[in-house]
């Protein structure tokens, strides 16, 4: 019985919440704030957003280059604005809960499932929290190789909480 | 923002922990006791164990019937003893954590992934906690149709916590 540590809840607790533009991920964040944040712990919440991979760049002539450049810049701006919007919304939710928690933003870019797994592997949080399906990057990649949450639950080492929005089941 | 309830943590909280004979499921139970049990909530913990399906009964003659009957009874006894052993161990772990929690046993029989999903669907807990791979019923069915935890994470409606034993990753 000695194999089971009685001090799972460390003094310093690091939780990664993967957020996107979906209601479900905001619901997962709310669940986390209500159920995993302890008053007896220093809680570090890392909001992780993954932007779409950069579009494939193609320009064979000068005119094409100019148009492609504009489109790419517009997409990059859109991606950054979306990331800021999602993060702002997530921080608003954190502020609504009267919990003692420090919130940090982290923005990645690329294949969501790989980015999440790589970051979790690097920063070694105590828990990863995420939505089940989602309507942002979760949905974008769902049809190809199974959902992002499936993949992360299989591959990350820490406990994973998968939260479904009750209205979307 | 009004869509996100601030009262996720109800006064009465019901958590199902799927346990089997593996170290991993006991680790998942410990994680649950440390991270999901609040002092401000009435916590109802349901320990769910799923026994193997009854063996296929085959007897073509009287001698065969007698032998089969003995074997079946021996297997049933073994299954019940194992269930009691796992439950006793799980309750010991609950007792080691100084938390205010009522613990209830629930034993099912059949295909673990279906039994867990059906029970969760029926009793509607706030959270389901389970190990990732396991060496009991989780392992028995892993090779056939993916792990039990994969299946449950996809099909149950409540938040699911999947915990991996750090020594088994």
From TrEMBL, chains A, B:
InterPro entries: Rossmann-like_a/b/a_fold, Universal_stress_UspA, UspA. Residues 14-164 form the UspA domain. It comes from the Eukaryota. Gene3D superfamilies: HUPs (3.40.50.620). This is GTP-binding protein sar1. It comes from Hibiscus syriacus.
